[in-house]
Specification:
With 778 residues, the protein is an alpha+beta fold. It has 20 helices and 22 strands. The strands form seven sheets. A five-stranded mixed β-sheet has the order 14-13-12-17-18. Strands 1-3-7-5 form a four-stranded antiparallel β-sheet. This is Signal transducer and activator of transcription.
Length: 778
């Protein structure tokens, strides 16, 4: 199918992209539509470089427009006649430069292909997502069916209890009536006794049946309880753990809240049924009454199920985080942080009636050197529905701080006597200086990537290695969360090659914690990778998101890719030896015609903060023979014209009107000195010997500037000074970086405000005395 026909059949969202593309006069959509077959058959890429071919295509285009105009005359399409005549007049401006017209049409065709690729990719992603969602939906549908079945059985039990009560009332009425009657006839009296025995036997059978039904109901509730607590909640906690380190996992709690609330409501109703049985037994009991024998066991079982459900329903919805941190779970002393808790059992009667208290390390080990902290600020709040968009029961703490307890001082953390429910955050790292954020975040990444036990106190004492699939996925999440574009397979393979060397399969390879964050200090793997991430997020996000930066490519791979390409092809890659830097290499040719790969010294954030990288690429020049300046960057790898790739980012103003004029007085002409190239600073991984470039000052073509003193441009060739945020040169004392894995959690405890109810007690944690849950059971 022709390209234009494919575009016309795309969904509306891509049709809108097409309309936005042709919302300009360079190539009117009418021309693209009526000449689509002819346009798609021509060699516009060759015409963009071949003046003669471009002129031929230019003339044929005008002829085709004449033919189309004649057709509209015959069809009496007045408006289309006018438009086609106007388009032809506009195209006359390309008479002196037909190559420009060819480049323009080529640009539009490539943009169309991008739209088609986006649509294809979206379709593939949707297909994969549908498969995954089908599995999730199947599990959810199974739960929904069981929830519906449970609610139906509870309704049936309500009917059963009414029948039981009516049957007992009938017996009681007849029996009381019989007692008031003076029956003298012995035979009649015996008949009445037989009748009452029959009625009491039926009542007894009904009680037994009701108790059996309650047992079956509790079996189903227990099954659902296990599914929620041991499967669904555990899976959500793991998704949240991964989401904390960048994974695009769904951590919405609304569905879980619906399920937890449904089961809790059913358990509350079972407790009401048991209370009704107690009431009936109080009115009428007899020898071997099954209710007296079985109710205590049913009551205990119901209370245990409800207790387990409520304990599990109190969760940390949003993990502790600072507003300006690298990510959650890294907290700094005396700096505010926030955390949000949620009770998944949504009971409106509890709104503002239950308090949540935040504390740190309630069971801190009594070991030398273990530092303890107090939580300061408004650390007690009531669970309420006002702070949740979905109306859930939440307590959102936004202004908490940590302060270290002095030896022998500080308020104790065991002053809370009423604790019914408790939720623990994921392990947090506490730092005392912002320069420690980088290494702290490395610890957060490693722990949450690997550990399934959030209370593993010995994790870093005997730190396990990560498999390459785990590690590569985690690295990709960092880019995905920061820039909305993760790492592709080729980029991950290059990183694996850096870590493990050349291998056919990296699936069985493992990365040790020491290799990630300890080896070769201060420039560890994580420092290098994070430096790139910060640079991309700060200065290169759009270029990265559009896929223009190949990024993770080593020198040998770079050469193998470029040497097969035409002269002027270049690629963008991250520096392997300079922290937080990017460079580019391009194909040149030697005197004998052999490909010669040249590389510019890396650009750091110092350079990128002065001038955008796309402007560097746009203005980059070297001196060729006879000192003629030339931009050697022509095609972005593999074969995209440079201006097509980066044109949309260029500033419209040029020359003296450019906002970057004070930085590009030299137009960034980095001049290669033939046969005497020498780097000012050794960069063995980025620059092969004899490939360094040096800048010159002054413009060759700007005569107006000749009388002014040449202005020195800060050159990427100068020695790089690492950013203190990206280098361990500012690393604080090792003891100041505290990994709280010795029961390292922030605890949020629910305290009950209201008076106890006598009919039910909920066992507290840690062997504390039994405490009432108050109005939760009203």
């Amino acid at each position: 199918m022709a390209q234009w026909e494919k575009l016309r059949q795309l969904p509306a969202v891509y049709g809108q992209q097409l309309h936005e593309l042709y919302d300009r006069d360079a190539l009117p959509m009418d021309v693209r539509h009526y000449l689509s077959a002819w346009i798609e058959k021509q060699e516009w890429q060759r015409a963009a470089r071949d003046h003669d071919l471009a002129m031929v295509l230019f003339q044929v285009l005008l002829e085709n427009l004449d033919i189309q105009h004649s057709r509209f005359v015959q069809e009496e399409s007045f408006l289309l006649q006018h438009n086609i005549r106007r388009y032809k007049q506009n195209f006359q401006r390309y008479l002196d430069d037909p190559c420009a017209l060819a480049s323009t049409i080529l640009w539009f065709l490539e943009k169309e292909k991008e739209i088609l690729r986006s649509a294809d990719l979206a379709e593939q992603v949707q297909f994969l997502r549908v498969e995954q969602e089908a599995m999730e939906t199947s599990s959810q549908q199974d739960l929904e069916r069981k929830m519906a079945g449970l609610k139906n059985e509870v309704q049936c039990m309500e009917h059963t209890m009414l029948c039981l009560e009516e049957q007992q009332d009938e017996f009681d009425f007849k029996y009381q009536t019989h007692k008031m009657e003076a029956v003298v006839d012995e035979a009649e009296k015996q008949e009445k006794i037989k009748l009452f025995q029959l009625l009491i036997n039926r009542l007894n059978d009904c009680r037994k049946s009701t108790l059996a039904d309650l047992n079956k109901l509790l079996d189903k509730i227990e099954e659902l309880n296990d599914m929620l607590v041991k499967k669904e909640l555990v899976e959500w906690q793991r998704r949240q753990q991964k989401a904390c380190i960048g994974a695009p996992d769904n951590v919405c709690l609304d569905q879980l809240e619906n399920w937890f609330t449904c089961v809790a409501v059913c358990l509350f109703q079972v407790r009401e049924f048991l209370s009704k049985l107690e009431e009936l037994v109080g009115k009428l009991s007899y020898a071997n009454d099954p209710v007296k024998a079985q109710k205590p066991g049913l009551q205990s079982r119901t209370d245990t199920l409800l207790e387990d459900l409520l304990k599990s329903s109190f969760v940390v919805e949003t993990q502790p985080s600072m507003p300006q941190g690298k990510g959650p779970l890294v907290l700094r002393t005396n700096v505010q942080f926030s955390v949000k808790t949620r009770l998944l059992v949504k009971v409106p009667e509890l709104n503002h009636s239950m308090k949540v208290n935040v504390s740190m390390d309630r069971e801190a080990p009594q070991m030398k050197g273990y530092r303890r902290f107090n939580v300061l600020g408004s650390k007690t709040k009531a669970l309420n529905m006002a702070e949740s968009q979905s109306g859930g029961m939440v307590a959102d703490f936004r202004h908490l701080t940590l302060k270290e307890q002095k030896s022998g001082g500080g308020k104790g953390v065991s002053d809370i006597s009423l604790i019914e429910l408790q939720a623990c955050s994921l392990p947090v790292i506490i730092i005392s200086n912002s320069s420690q954020q980088q290494s702290a975040w490395a610890s957060v990444l490693w722990f949450n990537m690997i550990s399934l036990d959030t209370k593993d106190v010995m994790f870093f004492a005997n730190c396990p290695a990560a498999t390459w699939p785990q590690f590569g996925e985690m690295l990709s999440w960092q880019f995905l969360s920061a820039t909305k574009r993760g790492l592709n397979d080729a980029q991950l393979e290059m990183i694996a090659h850096r870590l493990f060397g050349k291998k056919q399969d990296y699936g069985t390879c493992k990365v040790a914690w020491s290799k990630f964050s300890k080896e070769n200090p201060p420039d560890t793997f994580w420092v290098w990778f994070d430096g790139i991430l910060v640079m991309v997020k700060t200065y290169l996000e759009n270029l990265w998101r559009d896929g223009h930066i190949m990024g993770f490519v080593n020198k040998s791979k770079e050469k193998s890719l470029l040497k097969k390409k035409q002269r002027g092809t270049f690629l963008l890659r991250f520096s392997e030896s300079v922290i937080g830097a990017i460079t580019f290499s391009w194909v040149d040719t030697t005197i004998t015609g052999e490909p010669d790969i040249k590389t510019v010294q890396p650009f750091t954030k110092v350079d990128l903060s002065q001038i955008p990288f796309h402007e560097i690429i746009r203005n980059f020049q070297i001196l060729e023979a006879e000192n003629i300046p030339e931009n050697p960057l022509v095609y972005l790898y593999p074969n995209t014209p440079k201006d097509e790739a980066f044109g949309k980012y260029y500033t419209e103003k040029t020359g003296s009107d450019s906002p970057y004029i004070k930085y590009i007085k030299t137009k960034l002409m980095f001049v290669s000195k033939e046969n005497t190239l020498e780097a000012k600073s050794p960069m063995p991984s980025d620059m092969a010997q004899g490939e360094a470039l040096e800048p010159i000052n002054g413009l060759c073509e700007e005569a107006a500037e000749q009388n002014e003193a040449p202005q020195t441009l800060t050159s990427p060739l100068e020695m790089y000074h690492p950013d203190p945020m990206l280098s361990s040169s500012v690393a604080g004392p090792e003891e100041d970086l505290l990994m709280y894995l010795n029961n390292p959690n922030l605890f949020a405890d629910i305290m009950q405000e209201e008076p106890a109810l006598p009919d039910y007690s909920l066992q507290a944690f840690h062997g504390l005395p039994v405490q009432s849950c108050g109005s939760i059971f009203q």
